[in-house]
Design goal:
The protein is mainly α. The chain is 81% helix and 0% strand. It has one domain.
């Protein structure tokens, strides 16, 4: 049985925050692109973090890292106008990347399967 990683739980909470952040921060009505980006990526992060919580595998972490990278660069790619939405996207993206990479680094089974036998 694989151990549950606390980083996956944090990414799950971060995904929930990302989903509700357009309303909490107040850019839901002002910046449609930023809102949809937060809603879609928030759901995706929650889904893959929930999968990682229930059955930890390296591929879930890789997907969360890719979602985090998108969050960091999305402000400039889709032209988010709101400074608050931009800051939120960058901070959330960096946190998702950090915790997913940390969880992947702690997965000893994954390290064993990726080494090349000699």
């Amino acid at each position: 049985m694989k151990a549950k990683r606390w980083q996956d739980w944090l990414n799950l909470l971060i995904g929930i925050w990302l989903f509700i952040s357009p309303w909490v921060i107040g850019f839901a009505g002002a910046d449609t692109a930023a809102s949809w980006n937060a809603w879609i990526l928030g759901v995706a992060i929650v889904v893959f973090s929930a999968i990682a919580v229930s059955m930890p595998q390296a591929w879930e972490e890789v997907i969360n890292i890719l979602l985090g990278i998108w969050m960091v660069i999305s402000s400039w790619v889709i032209g988010i106008a709101s400074r608050a939405a931009e800051t939120n996207a960058v901070i959330v993206g960096l946190l998702v990347i950090l915790f997913a990479a940390w969880a992947m680094a702690m997965n000893r089974d994954w390290h064993r399967t990726t080494t090349i036998p000699q």
